[in-house]
Amino acid sequence: MGETGASASEGLRPYDQYAARRGLGWGQGIVVAGLGLGLAIAFLADRSLTAVLVIFTVQLGFLVSALWRVVLAIVSGGASDSIAPPPSEGLPRYTVLVALLDEAEVLPQLMERLAAIDYPPDRLDGFLILEAHDYETIAAAAACPAPSWLKILVAPEPEAGPRTKPRALNCGLAASTGDLVTVYDAEDDPDPLQLREAVARFARDRSRSLWALQAPLRIRSPDGTRRRFLDRQFAVEYASLFEVTLPGMARLGMPFPLGGTSNHFRADALKAVGGWDAHNVTEDADLGFRLWRAGGRLGVLSRPTYEPPPSTLADWLPQRTRWLKGFMQTWGVHTRDVRGLGLRGGLALTLTLGASLAAASAHAVALAWVAATVALAWAAGLPPDTPPFALGVLTVGTAAAWLSGLIGARRAGVSYTATDMLLAPVYWSLLSLAFYHALWRLIVEPFAWDKTRHRADPQRVDGSPSIAVDAGREAA
Predict the structure, then answer these.
(1) CA 455 to centroid of chain Cα atoms
(2) Residue 337 carries which DSSP code?
(3) Over the chain, what is the mean pLDDT?
(4) What is the phi/psi pair of residue 130, to 5°?
């Protein structure tokens, strides 16, 4: 049926000093304890002054983050301009890794989409990496027609440690033979020419310091509409990240957190840094900064991968909880020793993961403060008494988020209406729910993987018939 990968993860252990399983280091503990003790002493000495200084510091941080969004919106244009795909002759060998768990429902459409990849089959090397206990998906994969280059690899049950997507990817990486490696998820619909564009961009890098490329992820609903509130807000959030933030940071020569799918690597560089951290639940975000520490650069592609949104709160909350928990893990990992990050790396870590965590923790609090201020003023028959600086920060931050969303939505072909903009603070407030849930999960279940449920599309978005897998292609 396929390879078992019995020793597939050997030799690919992450650098120990950057492993999420280690928790906080002594230095980090001293800093956290020192800050807590300092704040406690300050509050005892002068509660009012300390509160003012803390609030001002937080507001200043949010102002800097808002201005950073504006800078990225300005510099991001053209960072991922399309590049002509190379001809078929002389293309490097490419490995495609797809880690699956409980995905029997989506396997037929996944096979269809992988079969549509425009790359010489004899230069492709692919693995569906399945978990040994997932009998339903293993049976479905064995029965599903698939491209001839795609094999089934069953990851062995771990003797110790977590059963996670990055552990499975390490099994696939150990078995891979490609010069380049890419990762896709079960629900992905990648542009057929994405691999060729990645080859062309890597080939243009004569220094071979470009180690990873991120394709833009674009959200579309299965029926081609985005009527639901969560669908629309999620699509704009992705557009802001993958069409503005990451291209802008790539243009500035800064590292950034990779997305969990459609990232492309030089295989030798990926193996040299130890592959993925099996204990980190956002192994992609961690890997982007670990590649940077080792001397690599990151870039972006123009050809996208389409994904469906987590349309319900029951699907969205576990996914976002895992992301924020992983951001906390990655922040902890890469602040153990900031010297290896350098100035640009440190700024990038702070302005991406740090800012995301800070914003998620405060969105609901800020919205509640504004609502309470307005409600109390209205009840008293007075105009709201809001500090000018606080109001200015709130205005600039909201405007910067709208600007990034508008630019990203236009580039991704996503609708972003005035109604969506007015409702955005409600969506941002939901991030606070996920943040505090993630904080609790980090304490009680730090390495547990909250899996996102995926459903098969009822039909192709553009209404075209399904792409049939060639009859001559064998099942894996």
Answers:
(1) 20
(2) -
(3) 84
(4) -115, 155
Segment 163-175 shows an average pLDDT of 92
What is the distance in angstroms between the CA of the first residue and the CA of the last residue of the chain?
7
- DSSP characters over 87-146: PSTTPPPEEEEEEESS-GGGHHHHHHHHHT--S-GGGEEEEEEEETT-HHHHHHHHHS--
Cα-only R_g, the chain: 23
Helix axes 47-75, 26-45, angle to 10 degrees: 130
Nearest CA-CA partner of 214 in 282, 291, 299:
299
Tell me, yes or no, if the pTM score tops 0.85: yes
User: Has residue 10 got a pLDDT over 50?
Assistant: no
Helices 47-75/388-412 angle, 10° precision: 30
3-class secondary structure, 161 = coil
Q: Tens of pLDDT along 335-378? A: 888 788 999 999 999 999 999 999 898 887 777 766 666 666 66
For the segment 381-429, what is each residue's pLDDT rounded down to a tens digit?
Answer: 555 556 677 777 788 888 999 999 999 999 999 999 999 999 999 999 9
Phi, psi of 217 (to 5 degrees): -100, 125
- Separation CA 40–CA 186 (nearest Å): 48
How far apart CA 154 and CA 17 sit, in angstroms, is 29
Q: From residue 59, how far is each of 16, 62, 137, 352, 387 by CA, in Å? A: 36, 5, 49, 17, 12
Q: What is the token pair recorded at 452?
A: 């996102």
Cα angle 416, 302, 251 (rounded to 5 degrees) comes to 90
Q: How far is CA 274 from the centre of its chain?
A: 19
159 closest CA partner among 282, 7, 350:
7
Catalogue the long-range contacts made by 109-114 (C-beta closer than 8 Å, 24 or more residues apart). 109/456, 109/457, 109/466, 110/186, 110/187, 110/188, 111/144, 111/145, 111/146, 111/147, 111/150, 111/469, 112/466, 112/467, 112/468, 112/469, 113/188, 113/189, 113/190, 113/467, 114/146, 114/147, 114/150, 114/184
The Cα 68–Cα 250 span in angstroms is 14
Q: What is the DSSP letter of 160?
A: S
Q: Of the candidates 233, 235, 218, which has an alpha carbon nearest to the alpha carbon of residue 424? A: 233
Residues 176, 97 contacting (CB under 8 angstroms)? yes
Q: Is the dihedral of CA 419, 363, 361, 376 positive or negative?
A: negative
Alpha-carbon gap, residue 397 to 386, rounded angstroms? 16
111: left (phi over 0), alpha (psi -120 to 50) or beta: alpha
Residue 300: what are its φ and ψ, rounded to 5°?
-130, 160
Does residue 80 have a pLDDT over 70?
A: no
